[in-house]
Specification:
The protein is α+β, with helices and mostly antiparallel strands. The chain folds into two domains: about 140 residues, Creatinase/prolidase N-terminal domain (Creatine Amidinohydrolase, Chain A, domain 1, 3-Layer(aba) Sandwich), CATH 3.40.350; about 230 residues, Creatine Amidinohydrolase, CATH 3.90.230. The protein contains nine helices and 18 strands. It has a six-stranded mixed β-sheet, sandwiched between helices. Strands 7, 8, 9, 10 and 18 form a five-stranded mixed β-sheet that branches. Strands 13-16-17 form a three-stranded antiparallel β-sheet. Strand 5, helix 4 and strand 6 form a beta-alpha-beta unit. Helix 8 packs antiparallel against helix 9. The two termini are about 25 Å apart.
């Protein structure tokens, strides 16, 4: 459910990135944006394949709506960039040079005096504060307005990457459900570390998160696994994922360490129905908020509405959380290639919690789930 990917796109095909940059320029021109400035975050790797390290030294992709892209990068980081002549120019800067001034110069050279600049959401404020007086008569907008719609629509290669990552965590969830991951007598932290090692063994490059929450701790959706020892006859919520070949996995399954308690079984039946209905509703043209409402209506009708305390889902791709968000108030209609989680939950403070999560891609043939491992609450002897 949570986590943040910091790895770059798997593709090294210059044609892929040239096409993405051109589509970004088209989006900018359609929205009256003269230049996009992208620093930290995953817009830059999406467009160029290069992911800046979160340093105090500035890295910036300068992308004019009419002109060539340039990556301004610290000279010591330049060897990490895969060069793509004709796609972008690499402009390394040394320690005695002001990279913000270089950025301002590139903007001035490629845009009119009165300009609109789209700024990446994760650009450090220190750089923007320094840049603003260098670019008077400039209006600023968020880059998500022009880049976000492009990243939301996954192409086939991206969907294939999500499918591979999903299959990998499915196998781990299958091990959990089969009782082959020891639970009782171990701490949540120990089980989390076990899941993490399995995520890496399954081919992921990095673990983004491995939530393990037992009993009453499962009522906290983003519980941090700690010294709590898992006992017999309680629910254990496991929400885990990582990044494989640049794209994220994210799955939640619950198991019960003994004979399933009747109140837990009754609530889980509601959760199971809500998750399945929301997945089924996630067809092209359906507003994101309606998919959320489908799950919420079922849970509310069963008397658990006050205990479903988060949105139904989030987009996923290069980042573990990105647009589109499956939440009330988001009227955006689903489009082919939109990838997102469906993960309703029910959380009773002091007692237990439960969540069921799949990654789904909207396609012309209907919702395509990236996760297929058993959706039931499984009793395990582990």
């Amino acid at each position: 459910m949570s986590g943040h990917s910091i790895v770059s796109s798997p593709a090294n095909d210059a044609k892929v990135f040239a096409d993405r940059l051109e589509r970004a320029r088209q989006s900018m021109r359609a929205q009256g944006v003269d230049v996009a400035l992208l620093s930290l975050g995953l817009d830059m790797p999406y467009l160029t394949g290069y992911n800046a390290m979160p340093l105090e030294r500035l890295t910036m992709l300068v992308l004019p709506a009419h002109g060539d892209a340039t990556i301004v990068v610290p000279v010591l980081e330049a060897p990490r960039v895969t060069l793509m002549p004709g796609v972008f120019t690499l402009l390394p800067w040394s320690e005695t040079v002001d990279p913000v001034a270089i950025t301002a110069r590139l903007v001035k050279e490629s845009t009119p005096e009165s300009r609109v600049v789209a700024v990446g959401d994760q650009m450090w404020a220190r750089f923007l504060v320094d840049l603003m007086p260098m670019l008077p008569s400039t209006q600023y907008r968020r880059s998500v307005d022009v880049i976000g719609s492009l990243r939301m629509r996954k192409d086939q290669a991206e969907i294939d990457a999500l499918r591979s990552a999903g299959a990998a965590v499915d196998r781990i969830a299958g091990e959990l459900q089969a009782g082959r991951i020891a639970l009782v007598g171990r701490t949540e932290a120990q089980v989390s570390a076990d899941l993490s090692s399995r995520i890496l063994a399954e081919g992921h490059d990095v673990v983004n998160f491995a939530i393990v929450a037992a009993g009453e701790n499962a009522a906290s959706p983003h519980h941090h696994p700690g010294p709590r020892v898992i006992q017999k006859n309680e629910i254990v919520l496991c929400d885990f994922g990582g990044t494989m070949n640049g794209y994220c996995s994210d799955i939640t399954r619950c198991v019960f360490t003994g004979e399933i308690a009747s109140d837990v079984a009754e609530a889980y039946a509601v959760l199971f129905e809500a998750e399945a209905a929301a997945v089924k509703a996630a067809i092209i043209g359906t507003p994101c908020e309606e998919v959320d409402a489908v799950a919420r209506r079922i849970i509310t009708a069963a008397g658990f509405g006050d205990y479903f305390i988060h949105r139904t889902g989030h987009g996923i791709g290069l980042d573990a959380h990105e647009d589109p968000y499956i939440v009330s108030g988001n009227s955006l209609p689903l489009e082919a290639g939109h990838a997102f989680s469906i993960e309703p939950g029910i959380y009773l403070p002091g007692k237990w919690g439960m969540r069921l999560e799949d990654i789904v891609v909207a396609t012309i043939d209907g919702p395509d789930s990236m996760n297929h491992v058993d959706h039931n609450l499984i009793a395990v002897d582990a």
